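From the shared-data thread, chain only:
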Amino acid sequence: MGKFFWLPVPHRVRESFRVGKSKSQKEGRGCFVNKTEAVEAFLANLTRGEKAQLLQRIAQDLGDAFPGIDSQPGVCGGDPCIVRTRIPVWVLVCARRLGTSEAELLRCYPTLRAEDLANAWAYYRVHREEIDRQIEEHEAA
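Structure, as tokens:
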């Protein structure tokens, strides 16, 4: 179990926590919970689809396998790319930083799919330092 932290929660959610009630809890302002309890209460209010989406993101963060992202020597300098496209992840991340929307990216790169962008963002979340370094290297060139 992790450390406890203050979580302002509505009464109906707070009822699911197995912790003693403080004065502030009785007044309906919040409670002290650990992170696991907070996540469990949060999950209880998600739809099955939202839970599946969250599970996919957690699995990607824990694992190092990213479907749709491949890195091969001799292809784009070995940078991680979207399979079938040879579009490097760093290019998409850079475009996103510059304010390009996902819809614009999909229009500019007709071979890209929405799923490819989701995979690229997930890859970036886990490999942020690597992709940031690639962006810096290409900007300096």
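Residues 21-27 have pLDDT under 50 and may be disordered.
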